[in-house]
Amino acid sequence: MGRYDFRPLRVHKTASQLFASERIKNVPSWHEVVGTIPPAQSLVRTQPLQHQERRRSPNARKPSKLFQPQRIVYEEDSLRKEFFGDHPWELARPRVVLENDGRDAERKDWSLVSQPDRPVDGESVIQRQMFLLHGNPDAGQKPDPDMTPSRAYDQARKEFYGIRLQQDIERRIAREEAMATGAYFGKTTLQIGTELEDKIFEEWKAWASAEVILQEQRRAAMYTGVENESAALPEGEQEVETAVEELESVIPAQGQEAFGGAAIRP
Predict the structure, then answer these.
(1) Residue of 241, 245, 219, 222 lying closest to 232 (CA atoms)
(2) pLDDT higher at 233 or 67
């Protein structure tokens, strides 16, 4: 038979010849399938090899970083961490993340922090800082050899603050012009936030007052007696108790004769 066994491949041919010679009346149901998908060298599937479980020695050292992927680090990551750590509210601004191919920022001229078709945000500061550190080799712009990351960060931040200040002034002037023509604006976000903080503070104040009273009551219940007996009596009973104490020195005790005054008649 040799190294290869071609008998499974002859099954379809043999069935076709038997049907052509009318030795079988009907074609087998598997005839068309076997003709489309020829079988392998053997029609019998052998049992797959069972892998034996290998017991690891308790003293064997397990590789800790064998299947861990390599960490991918970019220079911009540290710059973003520094900027957004100092300006966390910049992350709350809405952003448009739609890009053509993910490399749009590389085709901008970052000699200026503002771009005509891109709003100024934290990523603009990062790209401006990268331009100050490395320049633009494609355009032949070389960086300043004395430029350091801290100086680049300060310069990019200064330009960013100037643009934010200009935008704030433009919004303020637009608001004043609209109000001069009869427009009405509701509460600002700062006013709404202040009112919410005041509401939460008043709720906490009421809760804290109730907790203080409850703790004082628990502290008073820890003593078996009252240190100041007069403090435990109501105001009316305290007055009666004071009057009785004043008369105790005047009223004679039992068995003592009274001096002065009218005689008691039987």
Answers:
(1) 241
(2) 67
Task: Report CA-CA distances (Å) from 135 to 11, 33, 34, 129, 261.
Answer: 73, 66, 67, 9, 118
Give the torsion through C-alpha atoms of 113, 116, 118, 124, to 10 deg: 0
The two most distant CA atoms of the chain are separated, in Å, by 162
**Cβ distance 154 to 113 under 8 Å?**
no
**Residue 213 CB partners (closer than 8 Å, separation 6+):** none
Residue for token pair 């007055």: 239
For 229, left (φ over 0), alpha (ψ -120 to 50), or beta? alpha
Neighbouring CB atoms inside 10 A of 232's CB total 11
Q: What is the DSSP string of 125-187?
A: HHHHHHHHHH-BGGGTBPPPTT--HHHHHHHHHHHHHHHHHHHHHHHHHHHHHHHHTT-----
The span from the CA of 25 to the CA of 263, in Å, is 155
pLDDT digits (tens, 9 = 90+) for 109-118: 888 898 888 8
